[in-house]
Amino acid sequence: MMRIENMKKMVTILTALTAFFICLAMAAPAFSQEYDYARNGGYAGISVIGGSYARFDDELEDQLLSIGYIVNSDTDEAAGFKLYGGYRLGAHFAIEAEFEMLPKADIDIDGFGKLAELQTWVLTGNAKVFPLTGRIQPYALFGLGVMEADLEDSVGLGLNVTETDFAVRFGGGVDFYITANIVASTGIDYVLPTGDVQDIDYVSFGAGIQYRF
Q1: Cα separation, 106 vs 56, whole angstroms
Q2: Per the structure, how many domains does the chain have?
Q3: What is the pTM (predicted TM-score) of this model?
Q4: Which residues form the domain of 148?
Q5: What is the pLDDT of residues 113-144, one digit of tens each?
């Protein structure tokens, strides 16, 4: 229940940021209608993000149950950042590289306290599609890459583990052109890892600034 409430809060914040950026874009000085917002060229950006791990607690509880511990675990939402850069190829398509990091999130056990810390980073190559080409541009993306997850034991149970494996990214968002080169952006991504890190999928929400060259 707490995780659902936290997700609702994150969606509310993202919605408010999106509304704010729409107002900001509409209030910015108008450019000529002939200006090409969907021009070819490079871009780079940075965003602040919040992430919520989708299934990790259930999997951890199952693993602890298999060795005789019946517990309820709660992994905190994590605050992090992402860096990305890419190239716009025509009006409706772009390719980019994205690095996203969620620093250490506490893993707590009911009645016990902090058990461990979880940190992840994900690096993907993304394909991005823009259905609209005006000052406000929604987008969808799909990416392939790798995730590294680092579990750091806090109580001496030998839980220190670092694993790396293949990951897929699905996402969407909206870009808002404040000026010809400055773009505000909001978005939501779902990262689906595989193999050794398959249980550490998460949803991230973010907002930031992008520069169009």
Answers
A1: 12
A2: 1
A3: 0.82
A4: 2-212
A5: 788 899 999 999 999 999 999 999 999 999 99
